[in-house]
User: Which sequence fits this backbone?
């Protein structure tokens, strides 16, 4: 980031959890999304919407610190995340949890060991306490009794839930979800929504979700950004309930009948 | 020749009708159709056209190839600003064509053309500095990780180091036993054929023990471990890349080099020398079997001769080889795994590359060490 850009650093809202400032997402020279500016406030349930292939997962990887943006930066609170050094980034990432699209469980470890690993790495709790915490986190996502299963022995939906339990292992301040309810049955999906609301209300977590599920968007979200594949930038942001009434045409279509289907990808 | 498409222009509307047995497996050859499509494309440029209409009156079955051709005609027509009417096609093909037309082709970057031979050679040559700097970066990352460990700012899970100990220790014992024993036998046989000419068969014992301990034991252990453990390092870490498991580690602020690479390198560097000592013993036993059973050397004489020429410095030299090999193998395995692309075929390539690079590295390192030791007179 050049000095000139640094001087133009955006006004960070006092209650901002994550702020994207002029973020461009690209693979090599191929730009996926450009000029993204939005703020996720503390305690938000923030949805990243858009047709498949428009770059939602790629944006998430930039926000959560796995890939640097081609341009712009991300602020955590009022600290420049990508402008800082890698040790600072590690410290931020320790306080965020991520649930990957496919679960991304560590395949050589049981579910309980998956949840336990971050605890072993960062805390000096006794093995028995860690085991108890892991058991509780798994029960929280409906996987009690599966502690000693390996990831290859459970279904795709269960992997996602186990991934969620692991994401919550360190009681993060911010959690990222990539399509959490895709592949879940309707009951589990509704339970997941409920869990997200609970986490926000009881622990004050900030939740950032990529999802296509209209039901869950309207049930839980209070803020969002809409990425457009054609123009390669965001075309709307704000509360999806407001966007439904005043948003641009393609966003309204997405929110009323599209369910992400039929959009260019 | 039966024309695939009949073309007629009526009041600015180009009517393209697919006639005859125009369907997959029909009488018309692909080439005739392609030539015919070219003719249709040409007639799009006729002056005064405003629209194109597709018809297929005689069509009695679904025809994907016809659709593919009509799609290219329709795209060209749209590019010239003509309107396209596909409603005359039977079997709902018109609607399918409309769906294909609804989304214009996206400039998604596409694929670069397959490069020619010279370009491939040139690219490979130009890639060298890049690879060299990536290797040096990785070396630096491992060094930093080790420094963090020594400074107590990183922790290596003892469980992972133990797993590596097991993988390149106990688990490798059977195959190391077998290969070293046989190598000892082979060395004894081949050398006895020559030494017999001078009546000096008893020196088979020292020849086997010295060559095993000094260089053959470590090289053999290295090659076995490269094939077993090096390949598995690359495959395991590579498939963790594919499954986003490495990203998951990083998402917790856990550095993959600390967590995945350092335990493997440390485990391997410590374990290879131990396994080498074991291989030395097995190889010397192999020579002993040949000496005692086939060359009629008295066991006591054999052992005496084998040990009398062994000096401690040979053992140190052998262990130093082993240490270097352990580093080379674990480095190559982890490097290939960490740089694995995200698909299944890449995991296979990573494992192969790890083995090939380890073995080349072992041979090159052996030559270098041998030359240096000879120069300083050891
Ligand atoms: N590793 C990669 N390398 C190059 N291009 C990629 C890579 N991952 C994704 N893409 C491209 O980036 C675009 C957005 O992908 P993604 O972020 O996965 O979309 P979404 O999650 O919105 O469905 C796609 O066009 C895809 O082809
Ligand atoms: Mg995605």
Assistant:
């Amino acid at each position: 980031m050049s000095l000139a850009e640094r001087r133009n650093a955006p006004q960070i809202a006092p209650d901002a959890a994550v702020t994207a400032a002029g973020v461009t997402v690209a693979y090599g020279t191929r730009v996926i999304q450009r000029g993204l500016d939005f703020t996720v406030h503390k305690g938000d349930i923030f949805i990243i919407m858009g047709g498949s292939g428009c770059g939602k997962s790629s944006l998430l990887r930039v926000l959560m610190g796995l890939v640097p943006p081609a341009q712009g930066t991300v602020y955590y609170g009022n600290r420049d995340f990508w402008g800082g050094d890698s040790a600072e980034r590690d410290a931020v990432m320790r306080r965020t949890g991520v649930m990957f699209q496919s679960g991304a469980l560590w395949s050589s470890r049981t579910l309980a060991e998956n949840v336990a690993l971050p605890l072993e790495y960062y805390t000096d709790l006794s093995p028995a306490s860690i085991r108890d915490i892991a058991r509780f986190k798994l029960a929280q996502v409906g996987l009690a009794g599966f502690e000693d299963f390996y990831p290859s022995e459970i279904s795709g939906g269960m992997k996602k839930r186990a991934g969620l339990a692991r994401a919550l292992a360190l009681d993060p301040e911010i959690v990222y979800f990539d399509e959490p309810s895709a592949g879940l049955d309707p009951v589990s999906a509704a339970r997941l929504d409920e869990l997200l609301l609970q986490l926000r209300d009881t622990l004050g977590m900030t939740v950032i979700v990529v999802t296509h599920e209209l039901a869950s968007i309207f049930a839980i979200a209070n803020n969002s950004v809409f990425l457009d594949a054609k123009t390669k930038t965001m075309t709307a942001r704000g509360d999806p309930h407001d966007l439904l009434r005043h948003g641009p045409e393609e966003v309204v279509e997405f929110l009323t009948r599209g369910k992400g289907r039929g959009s260019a990808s | 020749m039966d024309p695939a498409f009949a073309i007629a222009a009526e009041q600015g509307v180009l009517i393209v009708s697919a006639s005859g047995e125009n369907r997959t497996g029909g009488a018309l050859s692909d080439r005739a159709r392609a030539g015919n499509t070219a003719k249709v494309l040409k007639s799009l440029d006729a002056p005064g056209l405003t629209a194109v209409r597709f018809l297929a009156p005689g069509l009695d079955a679904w025809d994907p190839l016809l659709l593919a051709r009509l799609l290219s005609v329709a795209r060209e027509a749209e590019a010239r600003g003509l309107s396209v009417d596909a409603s005359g096609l039977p079997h709902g093909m018109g609607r399918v064509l409309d769906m294909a037309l609804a989304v214009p082709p996206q400039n998604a970057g596409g694929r670069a053309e397959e490069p020619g031979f010279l370009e491939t050679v040139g690219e490979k040559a130009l890639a060298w500095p890049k690879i060299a700097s990536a290797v040096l970066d990785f070396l630096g990352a491992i060094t930093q990780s080790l420094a963090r460990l020594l400074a107590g700012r990183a922790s290596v899970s003892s469980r992972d180091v133990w797993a590596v100990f097991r993988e390149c220790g106990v688990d490798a014992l059977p195959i190391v036993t077998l290969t070293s024993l046989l190598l000892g036998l082979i060395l004894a046989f081949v050398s006895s054929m020559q030494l017999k000419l001078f009546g000096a068969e008893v020196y088979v014992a020292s020849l086997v023990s010295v060559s095993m301990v000094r260089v053959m034991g470590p090289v053999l252990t290295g090659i076995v471990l490269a094939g077993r453990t090096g390949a598995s390092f690359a495959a395991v870490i590579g498939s963790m890349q594919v499954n986003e498991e490495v990203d998951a580690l990083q998402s917790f602020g856990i550095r993959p080099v600390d967590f995945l690479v350092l335990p493997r390198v440390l485990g391997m560097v410590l374990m290879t020398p131990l396994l080498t000592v074991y291989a030395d013993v097995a190889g010397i036993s192999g020579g002993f079997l040949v000496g005692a059973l086939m060359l009629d050397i008295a066991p006591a004489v054999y052992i005496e001769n084998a040990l009398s020429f062994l000096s401690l410095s040979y053992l140190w030299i052998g262990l130093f080889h082993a240490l270097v090999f352990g580093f080379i193998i674990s480095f190559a395995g982890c490097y290939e795994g960490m740089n694995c692309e995200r698909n299944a075929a890449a995991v296979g390539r990573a494992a192969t590359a790890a083995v090939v690079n380890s073995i080349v590295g072992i041979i090159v390192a052996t030559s270098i060490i041998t030359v240096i030791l000879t120069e300083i007179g050891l």
